[in-house]
Amino acid sequence: MQRKISTTGIIFVFLLMGCASQQGIQDDKKWSPIYRLQLGTNKGGIVENTDMAVVDNAGVDAFSGATRRGVNASGKVMLPIRGNFVETGIDLMYNSQTFTYNDAANDFMGERKLGVTQFMVPLTYSIALFRENHPQGLFQFKLGYAAQFNLFSVSDGHANLPGYSTHAFSNGATLGFSTTPIRLKNGTRLGFFVDGYRGTRAYEDFYNQSEFEIPGTAFLKYGIIFQF
Q1: Structure pTM?
Q2: pLDDT greater than 90 at residue 111
Q3: What's phi and psi for 23, nearest 5 deg?
């Protein structure tokens, strides 16, 4: 599943690059980029395994995870291509998670606290809708690929917990919605966005092994847009 996501993302990137270089930019020499600053909150990060049936001798409550709401900030550039947009930029997202181990059979007891910082580089194609009175579209729907660079802070305290490993790089599919209906006197636009993501794994331990299907990375983030 993870290899399929990665391959699809790479193919999508090359298709977008080809469209931008061969069609949009050559056909429209008057295009100009649009810049956005986005600030918001998010839920997600590491997707932990919830199926204890795949773990040897583990009870139903042997392992569980909880994610606190985090914060995110993004700088985006949108390049007009035949009335729609290719969008990229840099996203910064942070959240904290707590994994609870209560597995007497495997002798793992206690809590592991993780702070997860993710730098993301998305590349998406946005379709602009309702352009009659809004040259950039009143709404934009986007679909594409995102690469994640992950930094972890891990605190185990005084507990008997399994070993773990983390992945500095993960990637997957992303989709989103945005709108900037409010126009200020200085030309700045205000609006909001919602983005979702599902990708490859960034964390492994005894309950989140590489051969298990569920673990990966995912998030839902939303917030406000300042468009310049």
Answers
A1: 0.82
A2: yes
A3: -115, -65
